[in-house]
C-alpha cells in the first residue's frame, strides 16, 4: 500500500498576519499600481524629460546650468513636500486658500487609506451632496503622486529664467515659491479650498501648475532681468535631436499627468489619456501649418511648442470633455498661443522688455488659461459628476448653469494670476536683498564653465592636437590627399 502524501507545509501565522496587513481590504492593487505608474510617468517628464529638453534647447554654454536648474528643483521639492508642503496643499484648512503645514513622513500616516477633501455643500435634508472620496490606495501613493506635480511646476517656471539667473538665488527661490505660492493654488483648487467648493474645474493642473508657472515665470524674469545682449540676439539650441527626445518624454509622460487624476484606473482615466493625445497632436499640426503659411518653413522647435500648448490646454479638461471638444481645443491651443507669441509679443512693449527665455508665458500661462475657460464651455455633465463635488456642473454648451461655469473658470484663473504676480514679486525682492538674482557679467559671458566648472561637451582635451588625417571627415587617403606633414593645430 502506497504511503500517504505528506500534508502541505502550513503558512506561518506570522506571514498570514503580515500579508493581511500589507494588503488591507480597502486596497485595490490595480488602482494602486496605476497611481504609482502615473506618478513615475510624471516624474520622468521632469527627470530626464525636462532636464534633457532644457539642456538641449539652450545655447551650448548654458546646457549644464539649464539642466541642473531642473534637476535641483526636483530634488529640493521632494524634500520640502514631505516635510511640510503636502499638508499645506491637501491637509486640514488653515485659511480658505491654505492648509496647515506639517510632515507627511510618519508610518501611521503613510500606510492608511488616502482620502480626498469632501464638499461642504448639503442637501436640504442635511445630507452631503457628495460623500468623501476614498481612493483605494495608501496615502503614500497620494503623497508621491502630488509631489511630482509640484516638482514639475517649479521646473516649468525655470524655463523663463534660463541663461542668467544666479544659481544660488534659484536654490533659495525653489522652497520659498513652493511654500508660499504653489501650495495656495493646490489647496484652493484641489485640497478643499474656496475655489474647490465653489466648483471651479481644474482636472489636472491647467491652473494649479501651468497658469501659475507661466505667470510666476514671467514675473521672475522681470525681476531677474534679461540675458546678455549677445544671448538675446542669438540663442540657438545646441542639440535639436536631443531636444526632441526630451519633448517626447514630456508628451508620453502626460499619460500619467492626466490619466492618474481620477485616482483610479477607470473609464474617466482612459478618456483623459485619449483626449490628451488628440489635443496635443491637433495643436502640433496647427502650429506647424501656421509656421508654414506665415514663415514658409515648418519649424521643429515650433512643432514642440505646439505640442506643449496642446498638452497644457487639455490638462484642465482632460477627463471632463468629449473627443470632439479635444479637437476644437487642439485647434485653439495651436493658434491662440501662436498668435500671442509671434504677433502680440513682438508688438507689446511690456512683453518685449521681459526676457522670458523659453516663452513659458505663452506655452503655459496663455494655453493653461485658455484651457480652463474652454473647460467651462465644453465640460460634459456626466463626466463632471465623476469629478466635481458640486451637483449639476456642466459646460456652457450644455445649457442650464453652464454659462455660470465659464464665469467661475475666469475668476478662478484670475485669482491664480493675481496671487502669483504678488507673491513671486515679494519673494524675488526679498531674495535680492541677500543674494543677487542675476549672475555677474563674467559668468554671463562665459556660461557653464564659470558657474559650475563643467561643460556639456568636451570635444577636445587641453593641449590635444587636431590632425585632419585623424579627426577630419575623412581619416584615410581613399578620397582626399593627406594633409601636408606637420599640418596640425593645437586646440
UniProtKB/TrEMBL annotation:
It is found in: Cell membrane; Membrane. Residues 33-457 form the Ammonium transporter AmtB-like domain. Keywords: Ammonia transport, Membrane, Transmembrane, Transmembrane helix, Transport. The chain crosses the membrane at residues 33-55, 67-86, 143-162, 174-195, 207-225, 237-257, 269-288, 300-318, 324-344, 365-390, 410-435. Belongs to the ammonia transporter channel (TC 1.A.11.2) family. This is Ammonium transporter. It comes from Rhodamnia argentea. InterPro entries: Ammonium/urea_transptr (IPR029020), Ammonium_transpt (IPR001905), Ammonium_transpt_CS (IPR018047), NH4_transpt_AmtB-like_dom (IPR024041). One of its GO terms (molecular function) is ammonium channel activity. It is a multi-pass membrane protein. Pfam families: Ammonium_transp. GO terms for cellular component: plasma membrane.
Amino acid at each position: 500500500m502506497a504511503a500517504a502524501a505528506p500534508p502541505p507545509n502550513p503558512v506561518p501565522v506570522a506571514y498570514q498576519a503580515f500579508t493581511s496587513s500589507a494588503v488591507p481590504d480597502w486596497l485595490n492593487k490595480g488602482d494602486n499600481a496605476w497611481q504609482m505608474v502615473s506618478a513615475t510617468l510624471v516624474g520622468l517628464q521632469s527627470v530626464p524629460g525636462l532636464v534633457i529638453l532644457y539642456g538641449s534647447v539652450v545655447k551650448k554654454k548654458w546646457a549644464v546650468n539649464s539642466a541642473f536648474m531642473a534637476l535641483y528643483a526636483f530634488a529640493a521639492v521632494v524634500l520640502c513636500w514631505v516635510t511640510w508642503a503636502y499638508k499645506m496643499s491637501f491637509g486640514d484648512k488653515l485659511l480658505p486658500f491654505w492648509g496647515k503645514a506639517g510632515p507627511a513622513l510618519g508610518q501611521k500616516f503613510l500606510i492608511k487609506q488616502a482620502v480626498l477633501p469632501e464638499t461642504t455643500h448639503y442637501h436640504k435634508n442635511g445630507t452631503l451632496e457628495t460623500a468623501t472620496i476614498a481612493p483605494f490606495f495608501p496615502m503614500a501613493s497620494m503623497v508621491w503622486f502630488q509631489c511630482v506635480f509640484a516638482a514639475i511646476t517649479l521646473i516649468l517656471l525655470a524655463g523663463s529664467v534660463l541663461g542668467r539667473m544666479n544659481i544660488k538665488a534659484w536654490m533659495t527661490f525653489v522652497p520659498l515659491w513652493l511654500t508660499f505660492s504653489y501650495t495656495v493654488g493646490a489647496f484652493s483648487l484641489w485640497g478643499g479650498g474656496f475655489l474647490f467648493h465653489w466648483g471651479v474645474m481644474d482636472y489636472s493642473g491647467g491652473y494649479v501648475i501651468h497658469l501659475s508657472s507661466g505667470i510666476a515665470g514671467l514675473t521672475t524674469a522681470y525681476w531677474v532681468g534679461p540675458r546678455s545682449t549677445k544671448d538675446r540676439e542669438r540663442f540657438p539650441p545646441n542639440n535639436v535631436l536631443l531636444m526632441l527626445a526630451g519633448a517626447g518624454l514630456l508628451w508620453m509622460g502626460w499619460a500619467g499627468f492626466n490619466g492618474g487624476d481620477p485616482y483610479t484606473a477607470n473609464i474617466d482615466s482612459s478618456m483623459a489619456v485619449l483626449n490628451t493625445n488628440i489635443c496635443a497632436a491637433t495643436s502640433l499640426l496647427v502650429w506647424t501649418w501656421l509656421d508654414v503659411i506665415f514663415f514658409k518653413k515648418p519649424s521643429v522647435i515650433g512643432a514642440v511648442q505646439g505640442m506643449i500648448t496642446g498638452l497644457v490646454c487639455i490638462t484642465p479638461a482632460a477627463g471632463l470633455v468629449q473627443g470632439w471638444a479635444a479637437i476644437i481645443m487642439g485647434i485653439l491651443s495651436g493658434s491662440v498661443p501662436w498668435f500671442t507669441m509671434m504677433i502680440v509679443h513682438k508688438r507689446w512693449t511690456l512683453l518685449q522688455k521681459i526676457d522670458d527665455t523659453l516663452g513659458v508665458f505663452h506655452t503655459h500661462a496663455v494655453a493653461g488659461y485658455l484651457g480652463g475657460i474652454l473647460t467651462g464651455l465644453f465640460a460634459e455633465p456626466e463626466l463632471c459628476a465623476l469629478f466635481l463635488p458640486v451637483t449639476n456642473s456642466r459646460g456652457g454648451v450644455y445649457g442650464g448653469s453652464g454659462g455660470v461655469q465659464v464665469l467661475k473658470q475666469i475668476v478662478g484663473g484670475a485669482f491664480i494670476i493675481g496671487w502669483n504676480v504678488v507673491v513671486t514679486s515679494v519673494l524675488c525682492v526679498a531674495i535680492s536683498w541677500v543674494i543677487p538674482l542675476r549672475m555677474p557679467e563674467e559668468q554671463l559671458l562665459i556660461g557653464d564653465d564659470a558657474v559650475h566648472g563643467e561643460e556639456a561637451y568636451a570635444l577636445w582635451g587641453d593641449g590635444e592636437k587636431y590632425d585632419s588625417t585623424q579627426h577630419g571627415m575623412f581619416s584615410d587617403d581613399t578620397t582626399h590627399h593627406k594633409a601636408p606633414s606637420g599640418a596640425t593645430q593645437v586646440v
